[in-house]
Amino acid sequence: MDYYELLGVKKDSSPADIKKAYRKLAFKYHPDKNQGEKKSETKFKEINEAYAVLSDSEKKKQYDLYGSADFHQRYSQEDIFRGFDLNDVLRQFGFGGAGQSAHFRSGMGGGNGFSSFFSQGQSGGCGGGCHSTPEKGQDMTYQITVSLEEVLNGAERTITLRKNGTPQNVSVKIPKGIEAGKKLRLQGKGGNSHNGGIPGDLYLKVDIASNATFSRDGDDLVTQKLITFSEACFGTSMEVETLEGKKFMVKVAPGTTHDSRLRLKGYGLPIGPLGERGDLYIRIGVKVPKELTEEQEKAIQELRNCGL
User: Fold this and answer.
1) How far is 112 from 80, CA to CA, in rounded Å?
2) Mean pLDDT for the stretch of residues 43-50
3) Using CA atoms, how far apart are residues 59 and 18, in angstroms rounded to an integer?
4) Cα separation of 270 and 267, whole Å?
């Protein structure tokens, strides 16, 4: 779903315009004005989800950066509504909260209520004469390990999971720039409903595999190169290979100290699927030999006598 289209606003609309558009729609589709109308209930849920994201500067920034599809892979319903209190928001607009009606009280529990209400396919609250309402299946979470190369280029993988004791192949798109701890959401790939509702969702929690050459520092990459003491004193050149396999000759200036850093701009990891890349840093280490030949020992002794 397109949040801007749902609220009838543009991407560059001001927070005040977004708030005004939401208020108008929330009043129109509020459950107390549309009791028993399933379409209005669905619409009310959707506009609240849209406002929960677009009224939060950080979530809005991520939504604008990743787009709707990738945003919903990264953010669960719990993430979207975290910190958003519907009742409080509606009271600010001058009319009763969602929990005011029996229809909504039955669907909303403690806290802000979204963990129960917004996960339901339909609300209860109609009394003992109603048939059992189909409920959404259970969400499932698995861990997936991706390489730095997959973070750099993005990837599509097929993984095999066991669902109800049966192996199941699932295709997953790994977006560029994915970070450790993020979750990829596969809608409808979770547990089956026990009474005819829609399946739950599958969340793949991302772990980043270690790399023998590069370490990650946010959107930057870091690699280490060792030089001798004389190279640190007089300067040198060295070959550096990037994560994608490009090779560069990098100059090390005379007088370079241990743990200095050189930078290759734009050869780190993507800042999100559509963003620019971070940088590659070469961390310089000065080698200290554990054992010295007789000639080396004599030369270093002379250096020490000279104050080095």
Assistant:
1) 12
2) 90
3) 14
4) 9
The C-alpha angle with vertex 101 and arms to 100 and 105, in degrees rounded to 5, equals 85
Tokens matching residue 57: 């500067």
Structural domains for the chain: 1-120 (1.10.287.110), 133-210 (2.60.260.20), 215-290 (2.60.260.20)
Q: What is the pTM of this model?
A: 0.56
- Summarize pLDDT for 141-169 with one digit per residue, the tens: 888 999 999 999 999 989 887 776 678 88
Alpha-carbon distance of 215 to 281, in angstroms, equals 10
Closest CA to 96 of 12, 168, 33: 33
Residues 130-135: contacts with CB under 8 Å, at least 24 apart: 132/195, 134/193, 134/195, 134/196, 134/197, 134/198, 135/193, 135/194, 135/195, 135/197
* Helix (H/G/I), strand (E/B), else coil: 222: strand
- Evaluate whether 142 touches 115 at the Cβ level (below 8 Å): no
Indicate the helix (H) or strand (E) that contains 51.
helix 38-54
Give dist(CA 181, CA 59) in Å, integer. 17
DSSP 133-180: PP-PPPPEEEEEEE-HHHHHH-EEEEEEEEETTEEEEEEEEE-TT--T
